[in-house]
Structure formats: structure tokens, C-alpha cells
Amino acid sequence: xxxxxxxxxxxxxxxxxxxxxxxxAELARRSGLQSSVLSAYEHGRRQPSVAALARVARxxxxxxxxxxxxxxxxxxxxxxxxxxxxELADRMPSKARGELAYPPLIRLAS
Length: 110
Hints:
By secondary structure, the protein is mainly alpha-helical. It has a domain at about 5-60: lambda repressor-like DNA-binding domains (434 Repressor (Amino-terminal Domain), Orthogonal Bundle). The chain is about 55% helix and about 0% strand. Helix 2 (about 25-30) crosses helix 3 and helix 2 (about 25-30) crosses helix 4 (about 50-60). The N and C termini lie far apart (about 75 Å). The model has no long low-confidence stretch (mean pLDDT about 80).
């Protein structure tokens, strides 16, 4: 349902309004937000904080739960593919480099 991170809040607020049957103005009033702010959230012109999303959900009689499982899944996947990435990096051709030569910082007058 939420493929694009920038659309998550917009889609969530629209879903909250559909599920509650509340108008945008009534949901804004119940959540203590200005109608223009809720409209900006719902149309993707502004990104609400998690606290603002929770207020909107509570105002509609819903509970917003944020689950870290999606991040845990991504972390687990990245842990599984990291050895493959490191192995590929080791196999990449490289050329030996000589020592770095630094220019003198100051030149002494002779």
C-alpha cells in the first residue's frame, strides 16, 4: 500500500478519513489542526510528524502503531547480502599505487 515514502503520510491520512467517514474539516477540528495544514498533509505538500499523524488517527477513533519490523527486515536483508558485496569488491581489478609523496609545507631559504 505504501510504496513511496513521500506518499505514506498522505495515503495514511486519506485512509483514516475514509475509514472514519469524517470530512477533512471535521477531522482537522477534532485533531486540533488547522484545516489548511491537514489539507497540505493529505495532498502531500507538507510532511507531518509522527506525533501529528497519531493525533489525526486518535481524532478519528483509531490508534496509530509504528512498528520497527520493516527496518528490522531491511537490516536482516542487508546483513545477508553484505558478504556478497564485500566479495565482489575484493574481486574488482585494482592497480598498485606507489607511496604518496607530499610536497614540503614550507621551503627554507638557503
